[in-house]
Design a protein that fits this description.
The complex is a heterodimer of chains A (565) and B (335). In chain A, a hairpin with an 8-residue loop joins strand 12 and strand 13. With 565 residues, chain A is an alpha/beta fold. Chain A has a seven-stranded mixed beta sheet. Chain A has 19 helices and 18 strands. Chain B is of the alpha/beta class and 335 residues long. Chain B has ten helices and seven strands. In chain B, strands 2-3-4-1-5-6-7 form a seven-stranded mixed beta sheet, sandwiched between helices. The chains are: A alpha/beta (565), B alpha/beta (335).
Chain lengths: 565, 335
C-alpha cells in the first residue's frame, strides 16, 4: 500500500472551530489511509513549535490555506506560511489549495490564480447547510490527492521512454522560460521565434547541411501513435552527420539543436529609442567572448546556436562599433510579427563525470518604439512576456536633471539630448512592459514579478564624467574584474551608488517603480566607454560594466555562483 | 465611488491572460459601443467631473493635471504607486492640445474646450501597495471634461445630468476673468466677453446635484461627495491689487515626494479670503450647504500670454491639489 499523502493546514487562530469541522469531514480519507493531516494544534507541548511547523510545511505534499480575513491579516499566516506554500507550489513540490472559509477579499491575493474550494468559491459560512460545503471540499481534496498520486507514479513510467514530465501548473501558456529546465528531456517547449508552445514529438527533423527532411512530424490524426510519443534524441550518429535540427511546427523556425535539453534563459533587454540597446547587446556579446570566457575557459564553453543571426548582428552592429568605431543608427521599428533571437549555449563542464549543465541565453534586439506602445509590443516584442529576467536600459539624459547638466556642460553633441527632447518619461518603456506583463499573466503576475530578476541599468554611464561638476570616484566608472567568481559585494555597492545618483538627479519615478520588484538591482554601464563625436565616430571603444547586469541575473536565476565575501 | 465589483466579476471572464492580451481585447458598451477599460469588471471606478464654463480652462487644466499625475512626483516614498493610462487616444488628444495648440500656438487657444465637446473620459488606472509583498489595490480614475450646462444642447444636457449623477467628486473651475470684481483688475488682453456669472453656474450645478443626491440617498448610497471649487489661471491673480503675492497659492508646488493636507488647508483659507476681499462672497455662500467643500487655485500653464500672445513655457502650478484632496476624502490615499 502507498504511504498516505501529508496535508498541512494553514489557518488563523480565530478559525480553529472551522478547522475542527474540516478535520471531521476529512476523517473518512484519513481512515482509508489516503491522507494524514497536520496543523499547529498537533504540536506537542515542550517541542520547538517553529521548527516543527517548518518541518511539516516543507514536507507536506498538499497545503490547505484556510482563507478568512484573519488569515490575510495575520503576518505569520500571510508572510511565512502562505508565501512559503506558494513557493513550494511554484517549484512543483506541493499542491496548494485555498479553502474559502469566510467572506474575504482574496481576488488579488498571491494565491488567487489557484483553484479554490468550495467549487464555486462561495465561503463555507455563507452556505445554508455548511455541511454541504465541507462535503464539496472533501471531494475536491480527494480529487487533488488522487491526481497527485497519479503524477507521482508517472516519472517512473516516463523514464522508460527517456522522457520526464513537468508539473502542468508550471507549464501553462503563461509559464516563464526560466523554469523550463530538465536534466534530460523536456517534452513541451516554447519556440524562441513565434513564442508558441509545442510538443517536441510534433516537430519535423531537417538536415542543416542540405535542408533535407529527415523525419516528418506526425499528421494531426496520429496524435496517440508511438511515432509521436517516442521523442527521438538528435544525438545519434545519423542526425549528427546531418547537423539535424527540429523545426517549430507553428512557424517553421529552425530550433536550436538542444532545445529539449537546455534551460532557456530569455534576457529581455528593454529600453526607449535612445537607450542604446543594440550597442549594449553588441558589447555584452563582445565582453562575454573577449573577457569573461578566457577567465572561465576550463569550466565553461560558449557556442552560438544561431550563426546566421549572429553574422547579421556582427555585420550590422558589432563590426561597425568594435572595428570601425562608428555609432550605429537607432534600430528601426520592425514590421514582422516574429523576431529571431541571438542564442548562445553556455555549457558548464563537470569534473565529477556528470553530464554537463547547459543553458541557452536568448537575446532579442528591437526598436525602442516596439517597447513604447502596447499595440506594438504585443505584435513585435512579445518575448518580454516570457522573460526570465529583465534588463531595463535607461538613457541618462532621459532624466531631466541630467539633461540640464549636459546642456550646461556643453561638451557633448546635441543629439545626446534626444531622449530628453522626446519628452518621454524615463520610465515609459518600463511602465508599458509592466502593464502588459501584468495583464498577460493575470493573477500569476504578482508571483512572477516577485521572482524575476530585474536589472535597472543606466546605459551610457560614461556621460557622468561630463555631468558631475567634480566627478566623484564612482565604482561603476571603473572596469569590472571578471575573475573566477562573481563579486556580489561590488555589485551591491554599485546598486547603492546608482540609487544615490538617481536620487541626486531627481529620478524619483525610477526609484518608485523599482519598488514593484522584489529582486531588483541598479547598474550603470557603458557599451562603448566614450561618447561619439558629431560625425558619430568614437575615439576609442572600451566598454565597461556591460556584463554586470547579465551575470547578476544569471546568479539570481541559479545559473552562476557568487562570491559573497 | 462605485460599489465593489467582486460579486459581478465572479461571473465574468477577466480580459487578462495571453489570449486577450495578444489582441488587447476590450469589452464594448452594449448601448453606445464605447470600448470599455479592459479591467472594468474588477476595478472600482472613481468618476471625477471637471465642470466649468467656456474659457474656464478645463481642457488645459485636465492636460496639466494628467501630466502631473503621470509624472508621479506627488507619490509618497513609503508605498508603491503607479498610474497607467487606459485611454491612450484621449490622452494623446489632450497632450496635443496642450503642447501644440496652447504652447506652440499652432492654433488659436480655443475658447471652448478642446478636444471639442466629448463624452469620452480620460481614464487612468491607479495602483497602490504598501510593499511589493502585499497585493495591489487598484482604482480607475475617470476624468470627465464637462462644459457648463448652459452651453449644451438638450441632448448634451441629458448626458451632463447623468455625468453628475454618477460622479464621485467634482472639480468646479472658475476663471478669474469671470469674476467681475477680479476681471476689472486684469490687463485688457486677459479680459473675456461678458458671460454667465460663475456663481450662477455653480448655483445651478449644485441645485441639480442636490436633487440627484437626494434621490441617491433614498437609494441607500452614500452622499459623501467632495467638491473642489477651483480658481483656474491662478497666475492672473498677481494683477489683482488685493492679492498678497506671498500667498501660498502663488508658490510653486513641485510635489517633491511630499504632499501635506496642511498646504491644502492654507490654500482653502487664502482663496476664501481672496474671494471675500474681492467681492465674490456669493461663491462662498452658495457652497455653505455642501458638507465637503474646499477652495483651490491652480494654473495649468503657470504663465499668462506674453506680448506676442504666446505662452512662454509650461510650468503647471498646483494642478494636483484638488485631486489629491479628493483621493484623501474618498479614502484612497492618506497624507
Amino acid at each position: 500500500m502507498e504511504s498516505p499523502v501529508e496535508i498541512f493546514c494553514c489557518y488563523a487562530d480565530r478559525d480553529q472551530d472551522l478547522l475542527a469541522e474540516l478535520e471531521t469531514h476529512l476523517s473518512p480519507l484519513r481512515r482509508q489511509g489516503v491522507i494524514v493531516t497536520w496543523h499547529s494544534l498537533n504540536i506537542i507541548p515542550g517541542t520547538n513549535a517553529e521548527e516543527e511547523r517548518s518541518k511539516h510545511l516543507n514536507n507536506a505534499q498538499v497545503i490547505l490555506l484556510l482563507i478568512s480575513p484573519d488569515f490575510l491579516a495575520s503576518d505569520h499566516c500571510y508572510d511565512q506560511e502562505m508565501m512559503r506554500a506558494i513557493r513550494r507550489h511554484q517549484q512543483g513540490e506541493a499542491v496548494v489549495i485555498p479553502i474559502i472559509l469566510r467572506p474575504t477579499y482574496w481576488e488579488e491575493a498571491p494565491f488567487a490564480h489557484l483553484q479554490a474550494l468550495p467549487t464555486d468559491k462561495k465561503p463555507v459560512v455563507t452556505w445554508y447547510y455548511p455541511d454541504e460545503a465541507w462535503v464539496d471540499i472533501t471531494r475536491g481534496i480527494k480529487k487533488a490527492v488522487k491526481e497527485l498520486v497519479r503524477k507521482l507514479a508517472l516519472p517512473s513510467q516516463s523514464k522508460k521512454s527517456g522522457v520526464s514530465w513537468q508539473d502542468s501548473s508550471r507549464e501553462g501558456d503563461s509559464g516563464k522560460l526560466a523554469v523550463e529546465e530538465t536534466s534530460s528531456f523536456d517534452v513541451i517547449v516554447r519556440c524562441p521565434c513565434c513564442l508558441d508552445q509545442f510538443y517536441v514529438g510534433d516537430c519535423d527533423i531537417v538536415s542543416r547541411t542540405d535542408g533535407r527532411l529527415l523525419r516528418k512530424g506526425p499528421a494531426p490524426n496520429e496524435w496517440r501513435t508511438p511515432r509521436r510519443e517516442n521523442v527521438e534524441s538528435l544525438t545519434s550518429p545519423k542526425y549528427l552527420r546531418q547537423l539535424a535540427g527540429r523545426q517549430c511546427p507553428h512557424c517553421g523556425y529552425g530550433l536550436p539543436f538542444n532545445i529539449e535539453r537546455a534551460k532557456n534563459i530569455s534576457l529581455a533587454i528593454v529600453g526607449d529609442t535612445y537607450s542604446g540597446k543594440s550597442h549594449y547587446i553588441a558589447s555584452v556579446i563582445h565582453t562575454l567572448r573577449e573577457r569573461w570566457l578566457p577567465e572561465h575557459r576550463k569550466s565553461v564553453s560558449l557556442t552560438c546556436l544561431t550563426p546566421e543571426v549572429e553574422h547579421k548582428y556582427y555585420h550590422d552592429v558589432i563590426r561597425p562599433v568594435f572595428v570601425d568605431k562608428i555609432s550605429v543608427p537607432a534600430t528601426q521599428p520592425t514590421s514582422y510579427d516574429v523576431s529571431e533571437p541571438l542564442i548562445y549555449e553556455l555549457k558548464f563542464k563537470s569534473s565529477s563525470g556528470e553530464a554537463p549543465k547547459r543553458v541557452n541565453l536568448l537575446f532579442y534586439d528591437g526598436s525602442g518604439e516596439d517597447y513604447a506602445w502596447q499595440e506594438r509590443m504585443v505584435r513585435h516584442a512579445r518575448h518580454v512576456m516570457y522573460a526570465s529576467a529583465f534588463i531595463f536600459l535607461i538613457d541618462p539624459p532621459a532624466l531631466t536633471e541630467v539633461a540640464k547638466h549636459i546642456e550646461e556642460a556643453n561638451q557633448l553633441p546635441p543629439f545626446y539630448l534626444a531622449a530628453y527632447r522626446s519628452g518621454r518619461s524615463p520610465v515609459h518603456a518600463i511602465k508599458t512592459t509592466l502593464e502588459l506583463f501584468e495583464r498577460y499573466h493575470g493573477s500569476q503576475a504578482e508571483n512572477l514579478l516577485r521572482s524575476l530578476p530585474v536589472a535597472i541599468t543606466l546605459s551610457k554611464a560614461d556621460l557622468f564624467r561630463h555631468v558631475a561638476s567634480v566627478a566623484p570616484a564612482y565604482r561603476f566608472l571603473s572596469h569590472s574584474r571578471y575573475g573566477k567568481s562573481l563579486h556580489l559585494q561590488e555589485m551591491n555597492a554599485i546598486d547603492e551608488e546608482v540609487r544615490t545618483l538617481v536620487k541626486k538627479y531627481k529620478g524619483y519615478s525610477l526609484l518608485r517603480l523599482s519598488q514593484r520588484f522584489s529582486t531588483v538591482s541598479f547598474f550603470a554601464t557603458s557599451a562603448t566607454g566614450c561618447a561619439p563625436d558629431e560625425m558619430g565616430r568614437f575615439r576609442f571603444i572600451e566598454p565597461y560594466r556591460c556584463l554586470d547586469p547579465v551575470l547578476w541575473a544569471l546568479y539570481r536565476l541559479g545559473v552562476l555562483h557568487a562570491d559573497t565575501r | 465611488m462605485d460599489p465593489p465589483k467582486t460579486a459581478l466579476a465572479r461571473h465574468l471572464q477577466p480580459l487578462v491572460g495571453p489570449f486577450y492580451t495578444k489582441e488587447l481585447a476590450h469589452r464594448e458598451c452594449p448601448h453606445c459601443r464605447y470600448l470599455l477599460p479592459f479591467n472594468i469588471e474588477r476595478v472600482p471606478s472613481i468618476n471625477i467631473v471637471v465642470v466649468g464654463d467656456n474659457s474656464s480652462g478645463k481642457s488645459s487644466y485636465i492636460a496639466a493635471l494628467m501630466r502631473q499625475l503621470v509624472e508621479g512626483q506627488w507619490m509618497t516614498r513609503e508605498q508603491y504607486t503607479n498610474v497607467s493610462c487606459l485611454t491612450h487616444e484621449v490622452e494623446r488628444a489632450y497632450y496635443r492640445f496642450y503642447e501644440y495648440d496652447l504652447l506652440k500656438g499652432e492654433n488659436e487657444p480655443a475658447p471652448a474646450g478642446y478636444p471639442a465637446f466629448t463624452t469620452t473620459p480620460v481614464i487612468y488606472e491607479l495602483s497602490l501597495s504598501s510593499s511589493p509583498r502585499r497585493p495591489l489595490q487598484k482604482f480607475n480614475i475617470l476624468l470627465y471634461d464637462v462644459p457648463g450646462r448652459n452651453h449644451l444642447s438638450a441632448e448634451q444636457r441629458e448626458w451632463y445630468s447623468r455625468c453628475l449623477l454618477h460622479a464621485s467628486a467634482m472639480i468646479f473651475l472658475i476663471a478669474p476673468e469671470n469674476l467681475p470684481a477680479i476681471a476689472s483688475s486684469l490687463p485688457s488682453s486677459s479680459r473675456l466677453p461678458r458671460q454667465l456669472e460663475s456663481s450662477e453656474l455653480l448655483h445651478s450645478t449644485l441645485q441639480l446635484l442636490e436633487q440627484q443626491r437626494h434621490f441617491i440617498e433614498r437609494g441607500g448610497r452614500s452622499s459623501h461627495f467632495p467638491l473642489a471649487v477651483t480658481l483656474s489661471k491662478s497666475d492672473l491673480l498677481r494683477f489683482v491689487h488685493s492679492f498678497n503675492v506671498d500667498f501660498f497659492v502663488s508658490r510653486d508646488c513641485a510635489y517633491d515626494n511630499e504632499t501635506s493636507l496642511g498646504d491644502i488647508e492654507a490654500i482653502d483659507r487664502e482663496v476664501r479670503e481672496l474671494l471675500a476681499v474681492s467681492g465674490n462672497r456669493s461663491l462662498i455662500s452658495i457652497t455653505q450647504e455642501v458638507p465637503l467643500v474646499k477652495f483651490f487655485a491652480v494654473s495649468a500653464l503657470g504663465h499668462s500670454v506674453n506680448s506676442q500672445e504666446k505662452f512662454p513655457n509650461a510650468e503647471p502650478c498646483r494642478c494636483l491639489d484638488p485631486v489629491l484632496w479628493i483621493f484623501h476624502e474618498l479614502g484612497i490615499m492618506a497624507y
